Amino acid sequence: MTQMEYAKPRSFKELDGIFESAKGPLRFIAGGTNVVPDLRAGTISPRLLVDLSGLKEMAYIREVKGEIAIGALSTISDILASRVICDKAPLLFQAARHLGSPLTRNRATIGGNLADASPAADTAPSLLAMGAMVHTRRRRGKERTIPLDRFFLGPNKTILAKDEIITRITFAKPKDPSRGRYLKLGLRNAMTISVASLAVSLEPEGSSFGGARIGLGAVAPTPVRAYLVEKKLASGAMDPKNIEACAQLITKEISPISDIRASADYRKRVVAVLFQRAIQAAVNGGTP
Amino acid sequence: MVRKTYSTIGRTTRRKDGVSKVTGREIFASDVVLPQMLHARVLRSPYPHARVVSIATAEAEAMGAVCLTPSDCPAWLYNERQVSIPEKTYRDRTVLPETARHVGEGIAAVAAKTEALAEQALGQLAVTYEPLPSVFDPWEAMAPEAPRLYKDIFLGDVVLPIERNIACFREMREGEVEQGFRESDVVVEQEFRTGRVYHHQMETKGVVCRPEPDGGISVWPTAQSIHNVRQLLGRIFNIPLSKINVHRIPIGGSFGSSIQMNTCIAICAALALKAGRPVRLVLTREEDLYDHCKYPSLIRLKFGVKKDGAIVAGEMTTVVDIGAHNIQAYPLLGCMAGWFVSLYRMPHMHFQGTAVYTNKAPACAMQGYGNPQVSFAVESLIDVIAERLNMDPIDVRLKNYVGLGETFWGQGPTVRSVIRSCGVEEMLQKGKDLIGWESRNRPEARSGRFRRGIGVGRSFHTSGTGAPMSGEVIDYSTALVKFNEDGSVDCLTPLMCHGGGTLEALTKIVSEETGVPLSKVEISPADTRSTGYDVCTHATRGVYCGGASARRAAQQARGILLQFASRILEVNPEALKIRPDEDLGQGVIYLEGAKGKSITVGEVAKTAQIKSWGTAIAVVSHRQVNCPPCFVTNFIEVEVDTETGRIRPVRAVAAVDAGTVINPDLAAGQLEGGLCRGIGLALLEDTDYDPRSGALTCGGNITDCKIFTALEMPLTEDVATFFAETEEPSGPFGAKGVGEAANNCTAGAVANAVANALGLRFTDAPMLPEKVLARWTDYLREKRGA
Ligand SMILES: Cc1cc2nc3c(=O)[nH]c(=O)nc-3n(C[C@H](O)[C@H](O)[C@H](O)COP(=O)(O)OP(=O)(O)OC[C@H]3O[C@@H](n4cnc5c(N)ncnc54)[C@H](O)[C@@H]3O)c2cc1C
Question: Which of B244, B270, B289 is the last residue in one of the domains?
Answer without folding.
Answer: B289
